Structures are given as structure tokens and as C-alpha cells.
Amino acid sequence: MTPARWGRIKEIFGAARERPESQRPEYLDGVCNGDAELRAEVEGLLAEDDPSSLASPAADLLGAREYRPGDFEAAFPAIACPPDRARNAEIWAEAGARGIPVIAVDDPPHCSFIFPAIHRQGDLVIAVSSGGKSPALASRVRDRIALEFGPAYARFLDLLGQLRPEVTERFPGFERRREIWYRLVDSRAIDYLNAGEPEAALAELRSVLEKA
């Protein structure tokens, strides 16, 4: 990854972070212009949502000077993208010694974590990782998941969350409670929500509980 590429990632991340979460997918569709790897990198940063990872001297090694031992005193986590990738081993060693998670761009052996491709619908969060082998593939898989798990799932999760105290109180035994939860999840409620009928969805869930 070139310094210009990393600068572009930071620029898009900053602009996306200022937007409401619901507006970010449309913004990224336009600004990334089909570049799946660029989008995956930006979404990884959004998933972490830690501005310090873009600001500290050790986290961003593309500033006025190159990495120097001791830079990691001010970084957590760290993102390494030095002009000379051979320095990643040195960066990795210092990060490991200090217990600091580090990601070296396009260098999986020197990464202690990987940015996944994230799909969100309300409180439902699905992460897809390729283990650093192909962020583009992870991004495409995430896009396919998004087609299956649309906005209705955010509403479905909210309904289930509302019922949680009641289910816990009515079914104190774990095995029985698990059975009820799967009946609720496997009910037709999600079909009603996809059809824009939230009242029918709630009635369906209530019916499952009444028959339990």
C-alpha cells in the first residue's frame, strides 16, 4: 500500500465517521466507486471507530518521519504502513513487547488483528474476515449477507429484545428457555416485518409465547 493509498483511506474514514451510521453505506458506495478493498479497509476502521488509531505517531507511520523505537508509547492500537515494508518486523517486535495490537497493511504475518468487513442492521452485527488473505472477497461476502439480512432484522432484534425479560421470567429453566427462543426466531415474524407489518410480527411472537 502506498502512502497516497493510506491517505485516501484516512480521508474517507474521516468523512464517513462524521455521517450518521445509516448514511454511511450510500456514501461509501459513491466514494469507493467499486473498489472493494478500499471499502473493506475503511469499514474496518469504522468498525474499530478509534480515532487514536489514525492520530498517534506510532499508529500512523506515514507522517513527517519514519518509525523510531519508542513510538509505541503513544499508540493503541497501531496501524503500520512504512515506506519500507522490511521495517514491519521491527514494528511487530516492539508492539508485541509492549502488548499493543498492530496491523501491518498488506502484511498478514505481522498483524495481530485483522479488520473484518462489517454488516450492521441496528444492533445486529455480522463480521466477515478472510484472515487478511483477500479483503475484497470478505467485502463481497458481506455484500451478499446484506442482501439476506436487511433492515427488517434490526426491527426483529428490537422486538426480541423487548420480549427478553418476559421470556426469562416465564421460563427459568435453560433448556426450555432455549427452545422458546428458537421458536420465536424461527417464527413468521421476520416475514411480516419484511412485508412492512410490524403489528402482525408482534402478534406472531405473542402467539408463540401463548402456545408455549
Give a written overview of the molecule.
The strands form 2 sheets. Strands 1-2 form a two-stranded parallel sheet. Strands 3-4 form a two-stranded antiparallel sheet. The longest helix is centred in the C-terminal third of the chain and has 19 residues, at 152-170. Residues 50-64 have low confidence and may be disordered. The chain folds into 2 domains: 3-148, no CATH class; 152-211. The radius of gyration is 22 Å and the shape is elongated. The termini are far apart. It is built from 10 helices and 4 strands; from the N terminus they run ααααβαβββααααα. It has helices spanning 3-17, 24-32, 36-48, 52-55, 88-98, 135-148, 152-170, 174-185, 189-194, 198-211, and strands at residues 78-80, 102-104, 117-121, 124-128. α1 crosses α3 (36-48). The chain is mainly alpha-helical.
What is shown here, in short?
This protein is mainly α and 212 residues long.
Count of DSSP-assigned helices: 10
- Please write the string of helix (H) and strand (E) elements: HHHHEHEEEHHHHH
Percentage beta strand:
5-15%
Largest beta sheet, briefly? 2 strands, parallel
Low-confidence stretches: 50-64
Distance between the termini: 57 Å
Radius of gyration: 22 Å
User: Would you report the number of β strands?
Assistant: 4
- Percent range of helical residues: 55-70%
How many discrete structural domains?
2
* Molecular shape: elongated
Mean pLDDT: 83
